Give the backbone structure.
Amino acid sequence: MTKALYKIASIPGDGIGTEVIPVGQRAADAAAAKHGFSIEWTEFDWSCERYAETGRMMPEDGVETMKAFDAIYLGAVGWPGVPDHVSLWGLLIPLRRELDLYANVRPVRLLKGVSSPLAGRGPEDIDFIVVRENVEGEYSEIGGRIYSGTEQEMVSQQAVFTRRGTDRIMDYAFRLAQNRKRKHVTSATKSNGIVHTMPFWDERFAEVSKKYPEVETAQFHIDILTAHFVQHPDWFDVVVGSNLFGDILSDLGPAVAGSIGIAPAANINPEGVYPSMFEPVHGSAPDIAGQGIANPVAAVWTAAMMLDHLGEKDAAQTLETAMEAVLSDPASRTKDLGGTANTKVCGAAILKHIER
Ligand code: NAI
Ligand code: MG
């Protein structure tokens, strides 16, 4: 259901997050104005900088605070000096888990004006979506270590797959495929080596697929699947994977489509009980932070995914069209894409295209 006003929480985070998120916000505002709605942004300073001052990435009631919003727009968190597991488990993971953002969605599309590291591939060859299970699977807190530091030292970590969790991520992938031209879902598995959870994953995939007779299916073991991403990206439409396999594929995917500086991602609660969270794939990029040269396109594409999720399809399309137009011009592309623009110039070009 669309609204006249959306309340969106913005969390720029660390490093280039604070440089690209404002560009995405201005672009979203311009698209909103064009299509007759508006956005009320509330900014939160949750970050490693805040951690250094307060000992927490976000306040204790942080997750609760987010529930009042229609969506969350996040830059990146992580900064040298704060261990990555602290920033991840202090902010991203609690938000993903407690808001039940169980579908992590990353579109992989080779855009015009961007060259793929794969020789001879064009926009018609690379257009798929990776759907990753985002709240259970291999990333569990169950396990432990005993006899630390001795010869008998032993560690174990348990993967957890529930029927509910497995079925709902597969349902999400199939519903997504139903609305796409190719109508095809590939499952990432490893049932030859992992003999309990992955055969279960395969069983559920076969079972859930029966509900979607018009959608074709394929499945590959994760090892050969990564090779196929590189050698046959044209085989894929929607690819569904567990938390770990999906994590790997959702970094490999954007890599074959060119630059991490353009790749968007969404953490979705499909039922809409809680706000969904939208973030570029890239991190805080300490190596270029503060120089004003970060590519803002990933943040803009991410904002387009957010507007699309909120039901504002036309506004989302406006953002995508603007971003593609800008990428085809070297004078408005950033350096990571072989252009000459900085963040400001690229952002201004996107804005100008939206407003015309
Ligand atoms: P990164 O994505 O920040 O950077 C990887 C490389 O890509 C760097 O050379 C960087 O300059 C370049 N790059 C990334 N985004 C770019 C953009 N928009 N324009 C131009 N170049 C861009 O990954 P890295 O270096 O592994 O991680 C840095 C920090 O970010 C770490 O603390 C990590 O934990 C955190 N991180 C956070 C994520 C999140 O908040 N979801 C995701 C990935 C990393
Ligand atoms: Mg990852």
The chain has a mean pLDDT of 96. Residues 5-111+258-355 form a domain with the Isopropylmalate Dehydrogenase fold (CATH 3.40.718.10). Residues 16, 20, 76-79, 84, 92, 260-261, 279, 282-288, 294-295, 298, 336 surround NAI (ligand 1) (CB under 6 Å). Residues 167 and 208 are 7 Å apart (CA to CA).
